[in-house]
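Input chain follows. Return structure tokens only.
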Amino acid sequence: MTIINPPEVRLPLSLQISPEAPYHQSQSTVLYQLWDALRKLGTSSSTIINDTDFTESFVVACSDETSGLAAGTAKASFRMPYDFTITDIRAAVNTAPTGTTLLTVDVGKNGTSILSTKLTFDAGEVTTTTAVAQRVITDTAVVDDDLIRFDIISVGNSVAGAGLKVSITGFAT
């Protein structure tokens, strides 16, 4: 049994005050602080809260909102701000691609693809979540300062598609 010494546990003020108070914190911030306090006291995090309970997403615009997409490398990129474990990658467009050629997007880390099956939009679809061929993530570990790059492999051959955004979801590690 873990004995909690009250002076060592400092709960955020937002648990005791209204959302309008000047020190209001988001629900996830409060939850993380509580979890961190319990972990520092030696309480098993797996029985209370897990790292995976703190998922977040990076959403990256890879084009403007209305211009037709064009194939090419490095349509967008960013440096990862901290260590991160990827749990999902998906994409969406404002204008659905059409034709026999599918809109296909790759995500790379430091110049190497992290997808063995790329993000694919079926003709007429605005999201990769409904694609027949679902993406397969082969590398989920990202560390601080890794370069994340987005490449458009192919576009629809009747309508290219427009307004591409890619979401990377996971949790800090």
